[in-house]
Amino acid sequence: MKSNIPVTSLQRLPVYLNYLKTLGGDVKFISSGAIARALGMGEVLVRKDLAYTSAQGRTRVGYVLSELIAALEDYLGCNDIKNAAIIGAGGLGRALLSYGGFGNYGIELVAGFDNDSSKIGGDVAGKPILDIADLDKGIRELGVTLAVICVPVKYAQSVADRLVECGVKAILNFAPALLNVPEGCTVRNIDVAANLAVLYSMS
Amino acid sequence: MKSNIPVTSLQRLPVYLNYLKTLGGDVKFISSGAIARALGMGEVLVRKDLAYTSAQGRTRVGYVLSELIAALEDYLGCNDIKNAAIIGAGGLGRALLSYGGFGNYGIELVAGFDNDSSKIGGDVAGKPILDIADLDKGIRELGVTLAVICVPVKYAQSVADRLVECGVKAILNFAPALLNVPEGCTVRNIDVAANLAVLYSMS
DNA sequence: TAGATTGTTAATCGATTAACAATC
DNA sequence: TAGATTGTTAATCGATTAACAATC
């Protein structure tokens, strides 16, 4: 959808946004050089990345901080509200339901799903836990387009199939499973243990 | 440490390992082509990646599955036991303490740390929750070299500083903060909300 | 043998960096 | 004006892919 931005650039945009938001209200302008120094990157790369958005720098001055933040938010779709669901209300699923950071990107968590009858009907941080047997109905009725899979690995593929079937466009998968999904749905796996092992191998 | 393997290759090794482990006990050999097809990648890339490990394929046959798994485990250090701690025993921290997947990579979770007196002295999944005031002492005594930061963003940098001070070599950071650490310590941030937003932008 | 597969060398592709003109 | 900064074009670098010799 996002024309021709490299994925690597796209992945850096939230990093810029995050950093810019930490700057106090007295900062009005910021240059690509200053951003680059703060983030330990090359300044040309910063300018190129920012150029994919609608941000416009001013020569001799840099970028107007508020405009730059707005451009990044706009590009990342933070102003389009998107509904998301957490599938699996175990420890991780519940932690994510309680996490407030999704709102920064226009993502609204609308429900969790689980198969445990002691959880179904309850809520976490105000978000209802629904019966995973009603996943399809719930996803459709709530207009969910993003999902996070936090179910045990053996259920992950069937959950993904049902999500795709219901029109979910992007899935973040915490189960250590390779999910097979058709074109039109984007999946990303996050394997915390593997990440830590790789970090260790790098050090 | 790992000579000259590209980070991109290194990050794929756990994916191969995971896939290979799902293959039933009746599979004795596997070719790079079969792996590539299953994972949707190019077969030359698979061979190149595997060549960084001690794996040796056999012409006409492929790799001996058990040998290949062993080579990957060896390369990723799954046979060196490394002690890890989770800093912050909120929802996410506790979920990670309960997660059994670390053992696959030779990572042993030895403790959680928190500042909440109602949690200190307790345990999660058999792992003790220690007082974060004693972080330095605990990390040193327990021989922790890997850490996962799950504390609120405002504490993240100071926790990181203390971890580095105590010799922690790799940090996985779930707080949405840019951590400043010296050479010799590797940090990786995981921002679940940003990941989901990027996925959405890609679709 | 013919065919399948590995491992490596060369070619391609894409992302990052360097150079620089434009501008205020 | 001089200097700082953007945005873009060209060069470099690194990772992926293609080609192919070796082998069983």
Overview of the molecule:
Chain A is an alpha/beta fold. Helices cover 41% and strands 19% of the residues of chain A. Chain A contains 8 helices and 9 strands. Chain A has helices at 7-22, 32-39, 43-51, 65-75, 91-98, 135-142, 153-165, 192-202, and strands at residues 29-30, 63-64, 82-87, 107-114, 123-124, 127-131, 144-149, 170-173, 186-189. Chain A has a 7-stranded mixed beta sheet. A two-stranded antiparallel ribbon of chain A has the order 1-2. In chain A, helix 2 (32-39) crosses helix 3 (43-51). The model of chain A has no long low-confidence stretch (mean pLDDT 96). The interface between A and B is large, with 60 and 60 residues. The first copy, chain A, binds a DNA duplex (24 and 24 nucleotides) through helix 3.
What is the strand and helix layout of this fold?
The structure is a homodimer of 203-residue chains.
Chain A: H1 7-22, E1 29-30, H2 32-39, H3 43-51, E2 63-64, H4 65-75, E3 82-87, H5 91-98, E4 107-114, E5 123-124, E6 127-131, H6 135-142, E7 144-149, H7 153-165, E8 170-173, E9 186-189, H8 192-202
Parallel strand pairs in A: 3-4, 3-7, 4-6, 7-8, 8-9
Antiparallel strand pairs in A: 1-2, 5-6
Helix pairs in contact in A: 1-4, 2-3
Chain A binds a DNA duplex (24 and 24 nucleotides) through residues 6, 8-9, 31-33, 42-45, 47-48, 51, 56-63.
Quick structural gist:
Two copies of one chain form a homodimer. Chain A is an alpha/beta fold. Chain A has helices at 7-22, 32-39, 43-51, 65-75, 91-98, 135-142, 153-165, 192-202, and strands at residues 29-30, 63-64, 82-87, 107-114, 123-124, 127-131, 144-149, 170-173, 186-189.
